[in-house]
Amino acid sequence: MSNSHSDTNSPVKEAFWRFSRKSPGIAKPVNNTHPHRFEKFNGNMIPNRKKDYDSIYNSNNSHGQFSSHLTTSGDSINIHNSNIATTTTTTTTTSMTATTNTTVTNITGETTHLSISTSSTTSLPPSPNSLSSSLNSSNGGIDTSQTSQQQNIAQLNNNRTKKFEKLLTGSNVDLESLKSLGWRGIPDKYRAMSWKILLGYLPTNEERRDEHLERKRKEYRDSLPQYYICDEKKNEADRKTLKQIQVDVPRTNPGVPLFQHPKIQMLLERILYIWSIRHPSTGYVQGINDLATPFIWVFLSEYVEDIMCCQVDKIESNMLANVEADSYWCLTKLLDGIQDHYTFAQPGIQRMLAQLKGLLEKINHSLCAHLADQDAQFIAFAFRWMNCLLMREIPFPLVIRMWDTYLSEKEGFSVFHVYVCAAFLVLWSDDIKQRDFPDIMIFLQKPPTQNWEEREIESLFSTAFYYRSLYEEAQSHLKSNNSNNNNNNNNNNNN
Questions:
Q1: Which of 206, 223, 240 is the endpoint of a domain?
Q2: pTM (predicted TM-score)
Q3: Which residues form the Rab-GAP TBC domain (predicted)?
Q4: Which domain does 368 fall in, by range?
């Protein structure tokens, strides 16, 4: 099916590499472990065929690359002048359809219209990391048994786990290598330690870690009697803050049983209250309660095997105390990087909203126009996306996977998250365009992600990575050219 005039878009990784081969400077270099499957273009190794795209996932990718778990039963690309239309069909139990129309201005000043249409229905496997039982391509497909694929995936996961083990058990952790490896997900066994190092809470030097942990945990424990005092000794502002926290804590992640347990709720309450007292310029803001929960979840998994079904009452009190202290310090590290999200008028979030709107106007102008026609302001639906980092829109276990990538980003949460939100919004473009203002708000406040698995997050990140590669680099080229032109003009004027 060719749809050269469609301007909606869903995950576009099937078209990304083909488009990259036509567009020097957009494709990213990969560590090629399958040279016979790739051709060299502009200094980069580019897949010869679509089915070879999945080989990227199996290689030791450089920082910022992504993987694909989708399988294709048929694919086609039709090129009409400067329009590229892509249609991909897969064997499915869950389906999504979307298209996109992108206008790109290259560094020579010419305008190129990229229209990518993807219609995909994805077969959900028994587990988030498994693939469908066959892979077929209209260009000459291959059939692989499900058992063989599961063995390959198990071997892949085992290899990644060994890489983390080797990296984290060394005397000194290479932070850039950890970011590169962690961008595509961190094994459960090494996630807690990796997060602490990525946030700068744990030293990269092994000899200093135990002493550092003991000192920081003691510092937090000593602060409890100093700050977490009885109501009679609190001033009016502190009592008001605590009351708001006590209202928000029971409503935090209501669908996750762990956070409905009284001990965990008290633990979260203390973390939030002490953080607000020690940061009076910011204070407690709704949304910070959400940001603390991934740390509690991940750090508790160091002490229990099955975090989903753990019995909190049987966990030793000193273990819970360690989880509380570690979560507090890591939350502090996280918020230090996005503190302007929670100061007066929240300028950091306002900036991200403006960036999201500008990005959507380039990616999908008709969707942006429809939102404007319906008076659906970005602040009305996307403010929470920025404030809570999509934690209320994505199933909680998948949020943990998302944070693996966010914490591995060189720029932190703020930059890449905007592209993720753009990909998330464009994913529902067809549905949104058929709705009026009330239905748009209801839909975007509770999008149909309850059955999502890790494959959907990988696909979302693939699209976000594509957008960043396309627009962020194109803007930097344009800025560079403009700067050079201005310098030349100034020199001419001086002469």
A1: 206
A2: 0.70
A3: 185-410
A4: 342-480
